[in-house]
Amino acid sequence: MSTPSSTRIASALPAEYRTRLLDVAREVNFPAGARLFNEGVHADRFWIVRSGTVTLDVHVPGRQAAVIEHLGQGELVGWSWMFAPHTWHFGAEAMTPVRTHEFDAATVRTMMDTDPAFGSAMGHWIGQVLAHRLVSARVRLLDLYAPYGSGGSL
Q1: How many CA atoms lie less than 13 Å away from 53 in the CB half-sphere?
Q2: Coiled coil: which residue ranges (predicted)?
Q3: How many whole angstroms separate alpha carbon 51 and alpha carbon 14?
Q4: Range list of β-strands (E), the chain
């Protein structure tokens, strides 16, 4: 399932909000194979990929984790930081060397609370990402484990 452009930061947020967000970012790099986070762990940050590929995966009891999606340049890694109890719902791993912008979740949530227009734009973007990721997870898990796969009609 391809990622819609509306979930990439360049298409999802107006320039002024991208600038405000990137003003609080710090550059963080991950080597290939590094885990960014695991399911069930406290979500206190998130990333936007600058270069490289990150995979999202979901724990499947008794089996190897199932890869849900591959994320690349301009894509958001992590949405669980926005919703209490702020616990990761998926896991993430660097498939290649990855360069990112990293954000402190509490800082961004405060920015969203103090500027309702910024908060609305961020919430809309993260909602689009969340909806896309849930559909991707459903399709991928059906492809892997359902008797007839996803049927390709999603």
Answers
A1: 6
A2: none
A3: 21
A4: 26-30, 35-37, 45-51, 54-58, 66-71, 76-77, 91-94, 98-104
Q: Tens of pLDDT along 14-60?
A: 899 999 999 999 999 999 999 999 999 999 999 999 999 999 998 87
SS3 92: strand
Q: How many other C-beta atoms lie within 10 A of the C-beta of residue 30?
A: 22
Helices 15-23 and 116-145: angle between axes, nearest 10 degrees = 90
CA dist., res. 75 & res. 50, Å (int):
8
Domains of the chain by residue range: 5-140
Q: For tokens 């999202």, name the residue.
A: 56
Q: What is the CATH number of domain 5-140?
A: 2.60.120.10
